[in-house]
Design a protein that fits this description.
This protein is an alpha+beta fold and 537 residues long. Strand 10 and strand 11 form a beta hairpin. It has 4 domains: 190 residues, no CATH class; 91 residues, 2-Layer Sandwich (Beta-Lactamase); 72 residues, Signal transduction histidine kinase, dimerisation/phosphotransfer (DHp) domain (Helix Hairpins, Orthogonal Bundle), CATH 1.10.287.130; 154 residues, Heat Shock Protein 90. The strands form 4 sheets. It has a 5-stranded antiparallel sheet.
């Protein structure tokens, strides 16, 4: 709507041109008013009365022109009325001066011609013929008055007619030129509006892009950058910064691409561990500027993984539902077989059936957990009491001595989490730690730390640890190094943590396994399982 209003708005009056025109007229009026005092004024052969009349007319004319200039500067309304008034001042003033100086032989008729041309151009040709008619009438009246009162030769009336024809020719030419100027000005205004809108759209697109964008000249100097690029490289990526200072490897790749036709894409490893891909694209700008698109490879891999998981989740959930019915039938049939008399071979086969049925059921339960989307009702869990009960439960389940699992929990420490989901997360983490530990006294440590206003649960074991080449895959679904594992435990634990506004991370590399659950003590609030946790992934 605003764009349409801008396009339909009439052209503003050319006050600047009118002010320049008034400035020219003021200089001309001053020169004409000083004529009686110039050295060559004796050649005019004027008597005292004529000199006095010339001085009065010149002063009055100059004063009116100065007043018109002042009005055009301070009272910028009624443009055409002001312009027409000043043209009338020119016609009267110049014709009176011409009458005193002998009519057309004074040569001041050219001044009227210039006045008609200037006024017609300033008015963009709208009143050009009117100004020409005014000049013609005033000139003919002056000549007729001279014939009647000063015995001027009547042949000059013919000269006045020819000059009047020049007024109209000048007015018509100024009219055509004014129309051309008005159309060009309107076109320039429209183009300016379109360019401004396009720049606003381009700026907004750059600001909203998820990838970083740098506009770089041929020398490798940044002409423009979007907020994403600034978040990657910092303030050095602002306008005027050099690629060599921002990222030397990026500058070398850009120079090789521009000068020697090198690869259009280079990969960068940032000091903080971030992996970037820079892609160079030429533009058709006259200064040879190029675009550098910066992509976060880690985010791209994460997005690809999320798409893969979404498709995989729908597929596996559907398969899980289909498997559950025949699995229940197999389990029920094995229970019926167990009631009949059997030998050792039947016992062994039934145990195999029962174990694998239970294993398949665990896999189905884990897959169905991945597909659930429900609200998480968090509670402020008192960790010393909760972890003590959890420790006794898992040690009894694993038939282990209490010395195997050491617990270090500050008093009154709390964690915002859904109790059942925290139990599932800890069961996965501590179960993995026990499975890979030596099971000697102190083999697994469950520590609670309170950094600032947060809470951290550390699960540490004395096992072989996680190889460096597997650290990035450890949370991926169905990834496992155990022969009987499903590969879903850690993935589900991370999903449940994020659903509770917490983060499950790998700890620092060391001789054993180390997982860290980072959460908050309060406030506790209802949160969806698919919400992103505070602070990002």
């Amino acid at each position: 709507m605003m764009l349409n209003m801008m396009e339909e708005a009439p052209l503003a009056p050319p006050w600047r041109s009118f002010q320049l025109f008034n400035g020219y007229r003021l200089v001309l009026a001053l020169l004409l008013g000083l004529m009686p005092f110039l050295p060559w004024q004796e050649s005019l052969k004027l008597d005292a009365l004529e000199r006095q009349f010339l001085l009065v007319v010149g002063s009055g004319y100059g004063g009116l022109v100065a007043l018109g200039l002042l009005l055009s500067l301070l009272w910028r309304v009624r443009f055409h009325a002001q312009l027409t008034t000043q043209v009338l001042v020119d016609m009267v003033g110049v014709n009176l001066l011409m009458f005193v100086l002998g009519g057309l032989r004074s040569g001041l008729g050219v001044v009227l011609l210039v006045s008609v041309a200037g006024a017609s151009l300033v008015a963009r040709g709208r009143l050009a013929l009117f100004y020409a008619a005014l000049a013609t009438l005033s000139l003919l009246c002056m000549e007729m008055l001279g014939v009647l009162t000063r015995n001027i030769d009547t042949a000059r009336v013919v000269q006045a007619g020819f000059l009047s024809m020049g007024f109209f020719a000048t007015a018509i030419s100024a009219h055509l030129l004014g129309r051309r100027l008005a159309s060009n000005e309107e076109l320039a205004r429209r183009r300016g509006v379109e360019l401004d809108n396009q720049m606003r759209i381009s700026r907004r697109v750059l600001e909203r892009m998820q990838d970083g964008v740098l506009v770089v000249d041929v020398e490798g100097r940044v002409l423009r950058s979007n907020p994403r690029a600034l978040s990657i490289f910092g303030a050095v990526a602002r306008e005027g910064g050099l690629l060599a200072r921002i990222e030397p490897e990026l500058a070398r790749g850009y120079r090789a691409w521009r000068d020697a036709g090198g690869p259009k894409r280079v990969e960068l490893a940032r000091p903080e561990g971030q992996e970037l891909a820079a892609r160079f694209v030429r533009t058709r700008s006259s200064d040879g500027a190029a675009l550098v698109f910066l992509e976060d490879l880690g985010k791209l891999r994460e997005q690809a993984l999320q798409l893969k998981l979404a498709s995989l989740g729908r597929l596996t959930a559907s398969i899980a539902h289909e498997i559950r019915n025949p699995l229940s039938a197999i389990s029920h049939a094995s229970d019926l077989l167990a009631e009949e008399a059997r030998g050792p071979m039947q016992e062994r086969l039934l145990r195999i059936i029962r174990d694998n049925t239970q294993r398949l059921d665990r896999v189905i339960q884990d897959v169905l957990v991945l597909g659930r989307q429900r609200a998480v009702d968090q509670e402020s869990i008192v960790l010393p009491l909760y972890l003590s009960e959890f420790t006794r439960e898992i040690l009894a389940q694993e038939h282990l001595d209490s010395s195997v699992l050491q617990l270090q929990v500050p008093e009154e420490s709390r964690l915002c989490f859904e109790p059942g989901q925290l139990h599932q997360v800890l069961w996965n983490l501590v179960g993995n730690a026990l499975r890979h530990s030596t099971r000697h006294p102190g083999a697994v440590r469950l520590e609670v730390r309170l950094p600032g206003d947060g809470v951290e649960l550390h699960v540490i074991d004395d096992g072989p640890g996680i190889p460096r080449d597997l650290r990035e895959q450890i949370f991926e679904p169905f990834f496992t190094t155990a022969t009987r594992g499903t590969g879903l435990g850690l993935h589900i634990a991370r999903e449940l943590s994020e659903a509770n506004g917490a983060r499950l991370l790998l700890g620092s590399e060391g001789p054993g396994g180390h997982f860290v659950l980072k959460g908050r003590s309060e406030p506790c609030q209802l949160q969806a399982m698919n919400d992103d946790p505070p602070g990002g992934p």
